[in-house]
Amino acid sequence: RTNVWSINIDDAKYDGPYILNSYMDFLPENFSLSAAYQRPSGELVLFINNIVYMIEYPSFKLKEGWPKRLSSLGFLPNTFIDTVVNTNRGQTYAIFNGNDVAQIDECSMTVCSYQLLQAVFPGIPPAPTLAFRYINGNLYFAKQQQFYTFNEFTRIVTEAGKFNINVLNIECLRNGLLQQMQDILDRLFQSSNTH
């Protein structure tokens, strides 16, 4: 089972985990999700092994004609997708096999060029496991416990450090829930001591 977390950008809170198969019953039973991103047109794209799924959002229905093999999108044989990011400039890049980058043409959903990671994202280490665009205009990359804030317009890493969700000013709902539970227990304890 693969879990996902939902982030509400408007109020900067996240919740989860949710089991991905419960929303997308067309996915295989046991799988490893390599990467996912949301297209400018709204669809979600999942990379699972050498298969690519395009999913309508918010219905979570598989788009007609999908899934497809990586090779049908123009990826080389023996490609392992590390992560995918759609940039503020509207370009989609798949980082694969550790140090290679394929630019994906969003109209044809095919690879239109190949480059090295350092040529596209200088300062980002090989084989990042997470990449995403955030509303503050930055791209974020993560590898193990490290994060990297990347400005695609100046093409430099502006910040790096140990990954923490607070970097994005996002509040964990579970912390709030735990605090509420603690407050209730404290009140119950105080109430039982006064009787």
Describe the protein in words.
This protein is α+β, with helices and mostly antiparallel strands. The protein has a single domain (3-193), classed as Hemopexin (4 Propeller), CATH 2.110.10. Helix content is 15%, strand content 41%. It is built from three helices and 15 strands. The strands form four sheets. A four-stranded antiparallel beta sheet has the order 3-4-5-6, with no helix packed on it. The chain is globular. It starts with a strand and ends with a helix. 18% of the residues are buried. The mean pLDDT is 85.
Sheet with the most strands, sense and barrel status? 4 strands, antiparallel
Low-pLDDT segments: none
Assembly level: single chain
E-strand count? 15
The fourth-level CATH homologous superfamily is: Hemopexin-like domain
Count every helix, treating DSSP H or I runs of 4 or more residues as helices.
3
CATH architectural category: 4 Propeller
